[in-house]
Write a structure and sequence with these properties.
Keywords: Membrane, Transmembrane, Transmembrane helix. The chain has a domain at 9-197 and 224-265 and 327-344: 3-Layer(aba) Sandwich (Rossmann fold). The chain has 13 helices and 15 strands. It has helices at 19-30, 46-54, 68-75, 90-107, 143-153, 159-174, 200-211, 229-244, 268-281, 304-311, 316-323, 332-338, 346-366; strands spanning 9-14, 37-43, 58-61, 80-83, 112-116, 136-138, 177-182, 185-187, 215-217, 223-228, 258-260, 265-267, 291-292, 298-302, 328-330. The strands form four sheets. Strands 3-2-1-4-5-7-11 form a seven-stranded parallel β-sheet, with helices on both faces. The protein has a three-stranded mixed β-sheet with strand order 8-10-12. It has a three-stranded mixed β-sheet with strand order 9-14-13. The longest helix is centred in the C-terminal third of the chain and has 21 residues, at 346-366. The relative contact order is 0.14.
Length: 367
């Protein structure tokens, strides 16, 4: 039996205290759509709950992403779940989908799961030589089948791809519409209440400061697409609007529901060179050794073993995938279907590198 109609649509957000999730929440709250939404968020700590409550969000306390029944219960009350806590946690995704399925049975209306993945899902392994792939993948291709083929052919299992495949299959089985948002290298300060965010640029700058010269993992010739955090969040906003709209066709979901996010790309060596230029200008890389970069910065190299230890990754494959691979994507679906228009690109990315180098040097001096 369907429940009475509510004037609000219910959104559950996972990851509200993180870089991506916190910024998504800020984007939703700042938009007029917030007047039509009832937003709840799962958080671990009472102080986080207090801050979110003051912002007009209903906080729900849980232990962690393994707190299956609590997540199911929270999702039972949601029309849309936006999951931005982990791209690799199948159990959390399963709990969300189970709860949404129960919700649909009660309301008689479609429920929706927006899963946050990552561009490493199509990344190659050029440093180890397992696979070298410079292709630019569009989200209008059959990405679902491409992922399946990657899993068959490549050495090593990708938890990111595995969870993507699970989300789509489980959503189809339970009757929940699923969408997978795929960000590449994210830059720009977060807009949430809890963290500004620390990404790949910060990691490379920290390594450069440790080695007293900019560093690449391997040759640094791998290329990643990039996206500013605010442009990424606008995809979640537009997708949510499209899902909840009664006046436009529903957005593609399931096997055709991949939404890449990008506005340009850069190589790892170009990032290192820019770090070298900024660091050289403020005097932190003087006298370093290494090959001369095209912009005048001297760039050194580290191998996968050293990268694994330095960045705290659990495997050589993770270290290579995040900081040495190529992951080139094209966000055609968001542009064509949602009318998405990213506003920040190469200039802002250069400013980000400069801000991070200067900021981390100043922080080191204070410490």
């Amino acid at each position: 039996m369907a429940e009475p109609e509510s004037q609000f649509r219910h959104i559950l957000l996972l990851g509200a205290t993180g870089y991506i999730g916190g910024s998504i929440l800020t984007t939703l709250l700042a938009h007029p759509i917030a007047d039509t939404l009832s937003i709840s968020a799962l958080v671990r700590k009472p102080y986080q709950a207090s801050i979110l409550k003051d912002a007009g969000v209903t906080p729900l306390l849980f232990k962690d992403l393994d707190d299956y029944q609590t997540i199911v219960g929270a999702a039972k009350d949601a029309d849309v779940v936006i999951a931005a806590a982990s791209a690799r946690h199948e159990g959390c995704a399963k709990a969300c989908l189970e709860g949404l399925s129960e919700r649909a049975k009660v309301t008689g209306k479609a429920t929706h799961y927006i899963h946050t993945s990552g561009a490493s899902m199509i990344g190659d392994w050029p440093v180890s030589g397992s696979r070298v792939d410079s292709k630019i993948y569009s989200d209008t291709e059959n990405i679902f089948e491409i992922e399946k083929e990657f899993e068959k052919k490549e050495e090593g299992w990708s938890p990111v791809r595995s969870v993507n495949q699970f989300v789509i299959a489980e959503g189809e089985k339970l009757g929940v519409k699923t969408y997978i948002v795929v960000p590449p290298l994210i830059f720009g300060p977060g807009t949430g209440s809890f963290t500004l965010g620390i990404g790949q640029v910060h990691m490379l700058v920290q390594t450069a400061l440790t080695h007293h010269q900019p560093i690449t993992v391997g040759s640094g010739t791998g290329i990643w697409s990039r996206i500013h955090i605010q442009d990424l969040c606008s995809i979640y906003l537009l997708l949510t609007q499209s899902i909840l709209s009664s006046s436009q066709p529903p957005p593609p979901s399931g096997k055709t529901g991949y939404y890449f996010a990008e506005n340009g790309e850069q190589s790892w060596i170009s990032i290192a060179e820019k770090i070298g230029v900024v660091g050289g200008r403020i005097g932190v890389f003087e006298g370093s050794e290494g090959s001369e970069g095209s912009e005048g910065g001297k760039v050194g190299r580290i191998g996968l073993e050293e990268a694994k230890e330095e960045f705290g990754y659990g495997s050589l494959r993770d270290a290579e995938g995040v900081l040495g691979s190529s992951a080139r994507i094209k966000a055609d679906r968001a542009r064509q279907v949602l009318g998405w228009k990213p506003e920040r690109g190469e200039r802002e990315f250069g400013e980000e590198i400069e801000d991070v180098v200067v900021g981390m040097v100043q922080q080191g001096e204070r410490d």
